[in-house]
């Protein structure tokens, strides 16, 4: 079968391949061919970047029924739906019958022959996807940068379907080839059709957005959300996965109209009407102009969303890996200097901050998450909005992050834990529904006097569970469901945090308190796109993904050390301390680019742990009321 | 099978000449409307005065005409080939169902089917050796409830072919069954009066499946799925028959609703005026309908996914049968309705809406009210799984294996793990209601206490994750109502609803309470009833009820202040009431042993925990899922009984325990301890998959009980086990104070030393006068006891006698 796709020229007329196939009556096997074809095309160099991304290009610039990509986060999973995989149409005038394909499409042609015995029913699953929550500006922008704005072709929504078929079945008759890269502005500004789209679409979007809750996990987020229709192997997708989806965009206005019709008509006699409430209808069939449908052709699970690193698993990219590894120690030293500067001259705290930022739950032994390293940075100055500055510095370095000021109002009113809304039949998101390796910044310096209400108590419990077990219990009303997560939690506080933490470090500013404000205002922060910042970003991203092992020899010496320490003073070192020291040693080695633990790193880990502990002890003596 | 037709087609293209498609299609795809009357499945014909009642759950059955196989459909000959060839070859269009054969078969089933091994609740009181469904017919004639529930499993074992037809063509076969049963019934009981004709409701179709496995092939078939009700709609009146009246001459006409549409009469038949007919709503016939939303039960779901939901329609008397939160099995017909086409639009959404028309509801949790929870754990094990579990149970070290598989990330504490393992298995359920003592508790309660940082919380988390209905709560935040239940007004319905707390939710599971010592006394007292009687009484806002719950508890008090090794007397920091303590079968102290060899092993364990590959760890231990299945299997199928030798061994053990303390006037064992021993030995027998409790089980129970006691209740001065120590918990300073008082008392007595016997009250007053700080009566008693332990004096009643 002849399939004419020219991906690099971005003339993806995928859907029509179905027609070819069904014309030739070889309904079997064509699906695999389409998927295989796409996968091969996408493997090719630059092919990925040639596909326009829904993250950057406004929806009204994208061509309907074309291939687009979307970097997203699965926020909710809807029920599977049955659709007509293949059906027969009858032409009202000629009575000619024709097989049509329903896959990768939302609407069927008119004059469907419902009684045809050739109808094939199939099943597909819908995921509600939103852009990756809490993504730092650099992460979303620079990923957009590589995408040429290829899709500034005029939208063809106005064309009828007959036209569409006609054109696509005769690819040679297609319009001017849209060259890669930005088109000349005159070209499409001259097009009246396009102009109309440009001026109208945004306004309508703004209007309708007001009454539609797009259910972003974090407050204040915006961006396109999308209903992704998955045709195969949907059990392998998990809630809260980060994905890069390649699919066929469907924004057919028919969808919106059908939805509107539903809401207004309330005939008791139609059995389909009473099935869904208006709320449910709004959620599951939002206007396509606002929430487009994406029919998935190919998807890839993202291990990270750091745009500066290759997408594929580290091992496959040996060149990249070896070059970064060799630089690790140097970059680490630079980063340490920078953090020391930021943390008011406290090198030890800076050291711990690095370890915290590269921590990662790499395994779970039954209920115990291994590798998490929640840091409680106590003794933060309250002047000059220090904690907020610190957050912005961290946000600049990590791909996704979220700042949660622990004010009474936030704790009592914010929804942290996702909750199932059975009326609208959707999972109402909460701030703790974030992708893995998100940096959660809890600012306890914002605590104030007052009483937590029931919701507040639940929120604090949820935060505690998140820190201790790296899991969030989603509220399904009749029961709770546990979702594991992998979030780096950093708690800044004045005294010891009210939340549990793996490690507490008390900040010891080297600057006299009177000068802190002045110091902060002159804090040197490198510009967002400087090569130094980019190096830091790569460093943090790579260190997190490195494999790690420990040799038998070192195991032995670690054991000996532990026994010795216990011998001197059994009270001072507990199993918990050993747990922590092992994590510190692991993170320390990784931060130096070492994938096995060596004796030096272990000694160093022990040393900084000792330093930290003495400091905490001292602090206890200073504040008598500390527990 | 053709798709259900949509009203949309007609709307969309009313003029579409449908006979053209008939010509070009290999088999007739659209029915000419005049075949209607030939349908064999006519409803509405009253049998001997009993009116028929529409079955909206089956849809428009009347639309199915019979076709003669021989002339039209040679293709399906093969499927009917098994039937007598000389008979009729008429089948219902689109199926291979022959009405008469089907009727006969079903009547034969009703008259002959016997299930002598039936254990179902519904069959209680029936003679199991008589035809089951005939007896049910009799019941109908007496009770007058015209519903016959038919277990599909019975039907399948009786006639597999009929069962297949039922599952594949429920819409046609069930009405056939209805006709058959009514014929049969009115033949047998010609004089009986029923509200309407009997309706057959099959349930338990073998295709019981979870929601996730439904696929397009199941459309229009009879399915049984399980799930939880999450939402019920209000009652929807659905029109069955429209009543029209002519506004000119007053003549009336009735039109039946066909697939959601009413064909409005264009002209009055009486006076021939067109457009004069008006619909009279309150003379039309309506039937009840309710939308129910079902969600997958949490146990059926793969991890990391959200539960699926499905819409179910309940009709007539099934409306309001279920409430949100109920766990049910529903049997019904899976339907798909294509999206309605809009006449103004040129295209249709190509998605079907699916729902289930329910025929039968069965609550899966209602049985628990009868205290039989084995069926609720309807965990189905595959043959292979059972085989492998049995093999595992034959291994001599199965007990040790399972114990080490429990929370492998926690180091050592083997005895505690064993205790928890036995708790997970539980004892056998005993019923003494005839002799007036009700149920004996079969559940094992455990209390863990100990030094900080000994992974108590982690152990709790593990157990909570292991059992299907675990609840985890912290004593710090719990209130009595949070544990039990409270009554509140539902904001939507404004009805009083019972909100359940942790203990109720963990019914039949395990309730893990962390930081038990931080719980207020008030709250703690709630536990008394739950732990021993396994019931829960609530009296709130004029609602008084007792809920049966069976919850083993694992409670862990938060660390007692850690002390140096030189003080071996570790007691609980807060004095808990003795009665509550006795309700714990096992009380463990988790200590930090602090010796070098232990430290080394611990370090090794932790390092390997962090750095060894996943595979390596998995090999060493049993999989968590195997452990889960093993426990579930044992709990469901094994209920060991005491053997003669075991009973003897238990008696001896108890007598021994009593003896230890009796010499010194202390009680070291209560009858409750004997019960604990029995439970533990039963649990141990369950671990071995043994139906008999042997001596080895008792030995292990004794050992474990002793270990637990030794750890927590050894009198440090005497080395004797004393239960009461658990309750006299005091801190190091309090003990020091006690010793001071004792010394002061001794001195005082020595200085006086006139008589070998003194008055208790007098002594107390003298001491109080002498002492600078206040001496409470309790403190004084303690001091006396301390001196008595030194064999310096004895206290008998109100006199204190000096020895020596």
UniProtKB/TrEMBL annotation, chain A:
One of its GO terms (biological process) is DNA-templated DNA replication. Residues 186-199 have a biased composition (Basic and acidic residues). Signal peptide: none annotated. Residues 139-154 have a biased composition (Polar residues). One of its GO terms (cellular component) is nucleus. GO terms for molecular function: chromatin binding. It holds the Pfam family MCM_bind. It comes from the Eukaryota. It is found in: Nucleus. The keyword DNA repair does not apply. Keywords: Nucleus. Residues 137-215 are annotated as: Disordered. Belongs to the MCMBP family. This is Mini-chromosome maintenance complex-binding protein. It comes from Gouania willdenowi.
From TrEMBL, chain B:
PROSITE patterns: MCM_1, MCM_2. GO terms for biological process: DNA strand elongation involved in DNA replication; double-strand break repair via break-induced replication; mitotic DNA replication initiation. It is found in: Nucleus. It catalyses: ATP + H2O = ADP + phosphate + H(+). The keyword Lipid biosynthesis does not apply. GO terms for molecular function: ATP binding; hydrolase activity; single-stranded DNA binding; single-stranded DNA helicase activity. The keyword RNA-binding does not apply. Residues 398-606 form the MCM C-terminal AAA(+) ATPase domain. InterPro entries: MCM, MCM_4, MCM_CS, MCM_dom, MCM_lid, MCM_N, MCM_OB, NA-bd_OB-fold. SUPFAM superfamilies: Nucleic acid-binding proteins, P-loop containing nucleoside triphosphate hydrolases. Its EC number is 3.6.4.12. Pfam families: MCM, MCM_lid, MCM_N, MCM_OB, WHD_MCM4. Its main location: nucleus. One of its GO terms (cellular component) is MCM complex. Residues 1-87 are annotated as: Disordered. Component of the MCM2-7 complex. Belongs to the MCM family. This is DNA replication licensing factor MCM4. It comes from Gouania willdenowi (Blunt-snouted clingfish).
